[in-house]
Amino acid sequence: MANEQNNITVIGNLTKDPDLRYTQSGIAVASLSVAVNRRVRNKDTNEWEDKLDGYFDVNIWRDHAENVAESLNKGDRVVVIGRLTKRSWEDRDGQTRWSTEIEADEVCPSLRWAKTSVSKVRSGGGGPRPSSGGGSAPPPAEPPTPDDVPF
After folding, report:
1. Most buried residue, 1, 21, 61, 117, by CB count within 10 Å?
2. What number is the average pLDDT over the span 29-38?
3. What's the burial of 75, exposed, middle or buried (CB within 10 Å: 0-12/13-18/19+)?
4. Looking only at Cα atoms, what is the longest distance across the chain?
5. What is the mean pLDDT of residues 90-108?
6. What DSSP letter does each residue of the chain carry, written as one string?
7. Are 84 and 54 in contact (CB under 8 A)?
8. Pairing mode, if any, of strands 77-90 and 96-109?
């Protein structure tokens, strides 16, 4: 139950193409950055302006990572649902640095101002197949182990 309190949903634009890499054990991990903006009216000019609320680094694992890397591009508006995580590392000067990231459970294109078509991926490879609109969801992926780091 404790995990249910650490949920975050972010809607924004990709700042670059997803970066797909593989851990030493062969597990796919995609990294991306989402810029979150909101539209506000400038009281002085009566014009709408974009206000940057921040950037969020996102990690996606396994088949989901490969699907995201193949499907999304820089500038695409996305919806990210996941959990906030912190990690630390030592920089070249021996200083401990910290980063807050989102471990994504879901990443998908926003359809507010866009259209897309969906093609399902066959289990165990074999490429995409047309969506039938039915069927059951695949079993959840195992969470990454501490040795599977996205960098």
Report:
1. 61
2. 94
3. exposed
4. 58
5. 94
6. -GGGGS-EEEEEEESS--EEEE-TT--EEEEEEEEEEEEEE-TTT--EEEEEEEEEEEEEEHHHHHHHHHH--TT-EEEEEEEEEEEEEE-TTS-EEEEEEEEEEEEEE--SS-----EEEPTTSS-EEE--S-S-PPPPPPPPPTT----
7. no
8. antiparallel
Query: Could you tell me the two tokens for 112?
Result: 């507010």
Token code pair at residue 45: 């000019």
The stretch 102-113 carries a mean pLDDT of 94
pLDDT in tens, 40-91: 899 999 999 988 889 999 999 999 999 999 999 999 999 999 999 998 989 9
Q: 7: number of CA atoms within 13 Å, CB side? A: 9
Q: Can you read off the two tokens belonging to residue 82?
A: 């996941």
